[in-house]
Structure formats: structure tokens, C-alpha cells
Amino acid sequence: MLCRAYGLKIGHGTLILGLPSFAGTGDPRRKFSIGVSSLINWPAYFDISDTITIGNRVAIGPHTSFITSSHEIGDYRARAADLTTAPIVLEDGVWIGAGATILPGVTIGAGAIVAAGAIVTKDVPDNTLVGGVPARLIRNLD
Description:
Blueprint: H1 2-6, E1 9-10, E2 15-16, E3 21-23, H2 28-31, E4 32-34, E5 39-40, E6 44-47, E7 52-54, E8 59-60, E9 64-66, E10 69-73, E11 80-85, E12 88-90, E13 95-96, E14 101-102, E15 107-108, E16 113-114, E17 119-120, E18 128-131, E19 136-140
């Protein structure tokens, strides 16, 4: 109720267990949306330097992080140079396991599963299971 009262775009039937953490250079009311009948466990961290779009019937495990910002590699005086951002998209039916991290510019395809503890650096195709560091295809799903 607090998230909706703040003005976040949250679909009907979505349940957020505890207050998610928002950080970054954006306003969550403009850069964060979640569809219907989804679940976000606590704690969850969302860097909203760019948009994060979560589809319908998405399940997000506890201790997950969604990072939309990074830095260009600078010279030896300051390796973390200019800030870069890219959106994250979780399509319908996705399941993100506990402790997973989703990095900038990643789209998780419909019906895909990200195993617990995975670090996702690239797009995940529809109906696949990925896991590991960095996340790799484990198998295709029915």
C-alpha cells in the first residue's frame, strides 16, 4: 500500500513483501513499473538510474539486485569514469531466484528462470533456465 500511495505503477494483485530499496539518479514513479499478479520478496534493491519494467506474474526472490548503471573505464587516475545507464526488462512469467543480480541493459525473456545467486550480464531468451557467474544457459524449458 505504501508503494502505491507513493505513486509507483503496480498492477492489481501484485504483492511486495517489505519495502524495496530504490537508489540511483531517477524518480521511481517514472522509472519503475510492475505488472499484475507479481511478487517481490524482501529485501530487493532497484537502481533506477534507468527504467526497470517488470511484467505480469513475475516472481522475484529475496536479496535480489537490479542495477541499471555502470561506468566507462577511465584511465589509471580514475578507472570508474563517466556514468552509463541501460534499462532492465523482465517479461511476463519470469522467476528470479534468491540473491540474483541483473545488470544494465538485460532483458529476461518470457517464462525464463534465473537461478539463485546468478549474475546476469546478457539477455536471457524466453523459456530458458540460466545460472552461474556470469549466468549461462542451463537448459531450455517447456
